[in-house]
Amino acid sequence: MNRLLKIFISLIVIISNISCDQITKEEARVEIEKNEIIEVINDNFILTKVENTGAAMSLGQNLPPKLKIIILQILPLLTLILMFFHIISKKENTKLNLIAFSFIIGGGIGNIYDRILYNSVTDFMHLKLGAFHTGLFNMADVSVVVGTLLLFLNYAKLEMDKKRFKNVSF
Length: 170
What we know:
alpha+beta
């Protein structure tokens, strides 16, 4: 895949993820009152709005303001920029890895955008499946998780292909 096509595909995925995240967060900000609970699927899928001033599970919310900007905005943004340049310049990158990293970058930018603009991240979804419970999350978080799962899937596929190829004799 040539570099220009990689950039195009990656930007489409990144922009789609950011857009989905920002549209859903704006709807949550407008339509859901703070700490209101809306049961979508009984108590298994709930919408409730919380402004998270930290990272995942409010980690870092009590940091001094300047340190919070460095740790929750500047460093993650630099990491995502480096990740983008890495995936578009790496020749042996698979299509699935390109998509996976683009999901992660889009989700990361969605949350950083909120931190810069609102000084918090809007979380509004909660999922409960039996004993499994999530914390509150948003579509940017979903993008990061989907991207991570795609990376694991690609890694598993590559490892299975290596084992299959190793067992083939010529």
